[in-house]
Queue: 4 jobs
Job 1
Amino acid sequence: MPQDESDDNSIGLDGEAVQALLQGAVLQGHDPAAMLSASAIDPSVYGNPHAAIDGPALVRLVRQIQFSLDDVYLGFFVQSCRLALEAERLLSFLHCGSFGEALRVSIRFTDAMSADVGPGISEEHGSGLRHICKYQTISGVDRNILVWIRFVWIYHFFSWLIGRPLALRQISVRGPKPVQLNGFDRFALFRCPVKFNAPLDALTYDRNDLTARLIHSSIQDYNDYYASEPDWFAAAGHELSWRDRTQQVLIDLQRAGLWSAPIEVVAARLRTKPRRLRNDLSHESESFQDIRTRLRGELAGAYLLASDLPVTSIGFLLGFSEPGSFSRHFISWAGMSPSAYRAAHVNDAAKVAVATSLLNERRLT
C-alpha cells in the first residue's frame, strides 16, 4: 500500500492535528513515527502544519492507535475501553429494527462502559433529536480533537449502518473552530451548520432518520467496512440499491459456504419479506436468481484467470459436488466451458487484472 506523500499543497488533516490524535499513545510510551509507518503514512507528517493525510489514511491511523493501545478512545481517558467491549456494544444494537432504536441502545451501553464518557439524548421540540456527548479527558491531550474524531466516527458509522448519509441538522462543539494553514475545514464533512464555543458537544439528528432500517447486522460487516479503508472526508455512502444490499448478503453467505441461499434467508438478513425483496429487485430490473448466479460465476471466472487451480478444484471450492455440474452452470453463465474460458482470456492482461482484484476482495481460501 503506498504511503501518503505530503507537500505544501496537501489538503486534508494537517500534521498538527495528526500529532494531537497521537497524544494519548505517546503518553503511554508509543513511538509516533512507528505508528505512522504502521499506518502507511509518512512519519514526516507528524506535527507539520504544511503536511496532511487524507480520509483513508485517517481511518488507518485511528485503527492503528486503537489496536496498539487496545482502547477505543485512543488513550484520551483515565480508564481505557478495550476493543472487546466495543464489540459487545456493537452486538447490543446491530440487530435493532431502526436507527433510533440502535442509537438509544448504543447510548445506554456506552454510558455503562466508562465513567469518562457520558452520552445522552435531549428530546427537542420540532424535528430534531440531540445526541449529547460528554468526554472527561486526561491532562496533556487535546480534548477538541477527540470530540471531532468521535463525531466523525458516529456520523460515518451510523450512515453506513443505514446505507445512506445521516441528515444532521446541527453540530455543537465546546471548542473553537479549528484553523489549518492549508485551509482544510475538518467539520465540512458533516454537511450541516456547526456551532462553535457552544455550552456542550452534541449532534442533532433529523427525526425522519430515526425510523431508518439498518442494512448491516454482523461484526463481520463492521470489520469489512474498516478493511475497505473508507474515506472519512468524503460524503457518507449514498443509500444502497436493493441489488447492492442483496449482493452484499449473498457474498457473506457464499464466504460461509452457503452457495444457494434461498431468498427467505437473504430477505431475513435485510429485514424485509421475500415477496417485497423480489418486487424491489424487479423495480431495479434485477432478479434474485440472476444476482446469485452472477456472483458465483464471477468468482469462478476470477479463479480461472487469477489462479492456477485445476478446473475440478475450483468447482469443488465453489460448492459443486460434481465436475459436470460445475461445467454446466459455468456454461450457462459464460457461454463456454471453464477450460475454454481460461484458454480464451488467460493472456488478456486487463481481464486478468480485474480477476485478480476480484479474487483479492472475495477470496475464499
Job 2
Amino acid sequence: MNQNFDASYFDGLLKSSKANKKQVAVYLDDATVERLDMIAKLFSAASDSKSFSRNSLIEIAIEKFLSESETYLREELGADVHALIEEEKSKKFDTAILSSTDKGFVNTFLGQAEPPCWYPCRISDAREQGLKFIAIYRSQPISAITHYAKIKEFKYDPERNCKVCYFDGDPIKLPNKITLGSKDACYFIGTKYTSLKSLLNATKADELTFG
C-alpha cells in the first residue's frame, strides 16, 4: 500500500474522549453506512478503552476536517476561525452577567456608596468590544438578577487595580426579576454572556440564552 496517512491520527481514535454535544441530522447512502459500521466494529475491537459507533466516527472525521480547515484558512488566507466566532458572539450576545453579594450590588451597582459603576469586570478584551449592557446576579437573600445598566465605557482603575464598567445613565430595573430556576447557586460564578432581549423576557436563568 503506497497511500500516505497519519498513523497518530488513528492511534488517537482509540483513546477515550468526552465533550458536550448537540444533535444534528446526517444523511448517508447504504454503502457508506455499511463501511462505517464495519470500521466502527474493527476500531472497537482494537481499543481497550473506547467503543465506537458510526456516529462517533462521523464526529471524529468532522473534527479532523475542521482542524485541518482552520489551519489552511489561517496559514493560506490569514483567517482566524476562533477569533471570528468570538466576534460573531460579541455581536449577538451584547450583555454581560456578573455576580455579587447583595450588599456589594446595592452599594456599587445602585450607587448608594459611590457613583453607580461595577468592578472588578473580568471580561476579555475580545468580548468587551461588543458589549452594550451589564447585569449582576445578586446572591442571597435575593438570589436573582433584578437590574441592568447601559455601558458607557470600560476603564482600568489603577487605585482599584482592576477594570471598571462605567454606566451610561442610571441602572434600570428589569420587568421581572430572574431567579435561578433549576440552576444552582454557583451557576453565575464567572462571567456569562447573553442578549438584552433574552434578559428582558426571562423570569428564570433556565430561560436565558447564553453564548
Job 3
Amino acid sequence: MIVHALAALLQTQVPGLPEHRVANIFKPLASPAQSEYEIAVFVIAITTVIFVVVGGLIVFTIVRFRRRPSDDTRQEPPQVYGSNQIEVAWTVIPILIVFVLIGVTARITAGVQNASPPASTVKVTVIGHQWWWEVVYPDFGLTTANEIHVPASPDGKTATYLTLRSMDVIHSFWVPQLSGKTDLIPNRDNFLWIDPKEAGIYLGNCAEYCGTQHANMLLRVIAHPPGDFEKWMAEQQKPAEQNPQMTEAKAMFESLSCINCHTVKGTPAVGKFGPDLTHLMSRETIGAGVLTNTAENLRNWINDPQVAKPGCYMPSMKLTDQELGQVVSYLESLK
C-alpha cells in the first residue's frame, strides 16, 4: 500500500505496476474536457485579478498607514466614518462577478449535457462495483471490465455515450483528460459522453470515496484509431478460446467456486459478481488497475488477492501449487 501511495504521489511508474496517477487536467483531449478547461481558466483568471487587487490594497494600506517614528502613540487615530461609494462598490462588484460566473457555468453545463449525438455513436454502460468497473456494450452484447475501449474522434464525428450506474455505493467516474466527474448512484442512471481527439490510453479513477480500496478503483479509456475499434470489438465478441491442451486446467477452473463469481462465455462459469474473464489476457491490468497483467502477477493475484488489494471481495482459494498452476494456465489461454 505504501508503494502504491508513493507512486501516486510522485506520479511515477513503479516497475511491474501500471501507471497509478491522476492525468493532467490542463491537457484536455475531448470536447467536454475542453469546455470545462476553458471555464476553469476563466474562473482562475477572475479570481487571480481579485487576489491581486485585494492583496495590492492590503499591501498599500500596510505601507501607507504604517506606524512612523514621529507618531504619537498616545494619540487616538482619526475616527473616519467611511465611504458610501466604496461600500456600494465592494457590494455590487462581487454580486456582478457571481452572476457572471453562474451564467458562464450554466451555459457550459447546458452545452455539454444537451449536445446532440453525432451520426456515429457508441453506447457503453459503466457499472461501478466495490472496487472495479463493469463495462457493457449493449449494442454488441459484450461485457468486459476496467478498460473502456472507444473509437477516437479526431474529426469530431464520433462519440461515445456512457450510461453510469452503481451496484452498491456511490462511485464517481473521472477521466480528467476526457470529462469532468460524474457520480454513479444506486437506482439512478447518470449520463456522460466523450470524444477523444487522439488515440491512446487515458487514465481515470473513482473520485468518490467508496470504501477501503477506493484509491485502487482505477480505470482506463483506450481510444482506438479509426478502424481499430471495430477489430477489437470483433475479437472480443468471439467465445472463449477452446485449447485442447487446456482440458485438464479448464476442468480444474470449473471445479472451483470461481465460476460462481466470474463469467467465461461458452463454459459453466456464468457468475456476475466479479469481472467477465472471457478475454482476460487481452487486458493490460488486473485488479482494476492495481497490477500489470503478467503471468507472475496473475498467479500472485489468484493465490492471495488481499496482498495487492486488502479488503477486496475476492478471497484466497488456498490452492495447492499444482491447482494454482492449472488455474493460471487456463486463464492465460483466455486471450
Job 4
Amino acid sequence: MGGRSALPVASVEARLDAFESVCDTRPHVVQGDLTDRDVVYRLFEEARPEAIVHLGECPSAPYSMIDADHAIWVQRNNIEGTMNVLYAMRDLAPEAHLVKLGTMGEYGTPNLDIPEGFFEIEYRGRRDRLPFPRQAGSWYHWSKVHDSNNVMFACRIFGLRATDVMQGVVYGTRFFGSSADHPADPALHTRLDFDQAFGTALNRFCCQSVIGEPMTLFGLGNQRRGFLPICDSMQCLTLAVDNPPEAGDYRVFNQFEETYTISELASKVAAVASDMGLDPRIRRIENPRKEMEEHHYNPDHDHLLALGYQPTRDMDSEIRAMLEDLLPHHDRIAAKRDVLLPDIRWDGSRRKSIFLDGSNGAGPEEAAGEPPSVDEPEARAADVDHAVVAEAAPVARR
C-alpha cells in the first residue's frame, strides 16, 4: 500500500526481549503461514494448547476490494487458515478453546437492533433461535462471515468450543491499562497504520492532525461504528480465555465500548488536538465505498459485561495519548502523507477521492469541528473496521 507504521516497529527479537523485561516471561514464537496445514499441525503437536486466540488474518476491507486477485487471496488466506486451525483442534487439541476474532462489520447496518450472534424469531407461527443475518460490506467482511459459519459448524460436528468475538474498531497505542503503567521501552509500541487499507479512520485522523493535514471524512461522515481502546480489547480477550464455554458450544461476544459516527470521531480528535496546540481541520472527501450513510445502529454487548468487563480508558484521554506518542514521529508520518487519500474504489477502479468542496485540496480548509455541508445523498462514510494480525503462538495456562 506504500505506507508503514507511524510508530517504528522493533524486530521480533527486540520485542520479545522487551516483553520479557516487563512480564518476566518470554513468549515462544513460531513463524509460519496458517494456510500451510503442516505448519499448523506441527505447532499444535508442540504446544498442545488449552486456548487458541486466533488473530492471524488479513484485516482490510479496501485491500480485498482492489481486484479479483486481492479478493481471492483475502478469502483463501482467512478462510483456509481458520479451517486448518479447526481441523488441528479436532485432531490434536479437542478440549481447547478457540477465541476467534470476528468483526462487527459482519452484521452490516440492518434496520434492527443487533444481538450477540443469535436472536429469537417467530415466522408463520413457529419460533426458533437462529444466527442473526449477516450483511457484510466487502469481500474481507464476507470472509469473516464464512469463518463464523465454519467455526459454528465445527463446534456442532466436532464438539469443539469457541468464542467468536465480533470486535469493533480498536484504537490506541498503549495497552497496559493506563499511561502510568505503560512501559517506556519503544520496542513495546503497537503497530499503527494510517494508509487507506490497513489504517482505521481514528488512526488516520490522529496522523493527519500531527502533520497538519486535514482530517478526511468519507462522504457525510454519519456512519456509526463501535470502538474500544486496545488495552480494553486485551481485557476482553482475557475474559473470554479465562471463561471458556462448554464442549460443543459456539458463542458470540460483541466487543466494543461506545458507538460514534465518523464525524463525531473527527470532532473528538480536533478538540483534543486543539487543546494540545495543534491546528486540526476537517474536510469531507468523496467516499470510494458503497455503504449506507444514514442508518440505524444499536448493537448489544452484554456478555462481556456479565463476565466482569470494566472500561479502563475514555476516548479523549486515549486520543491524547495517541497524539503524544505520534508527535515525535512527525517526519516519519509526513514522508508518507501521499497514502492518506484513498484511491481503492468499490467499483474496481483506482482513482483518488476528491474533496467535496470541489477544490481537491487546493481550496480553503474548514475549521476544526465544522465540516462543510454536502448535498449529495450518495456520499457515504468510511468503514472503519480493524483487526490485529499476530504470529501464531500457544497460550499457556497461568
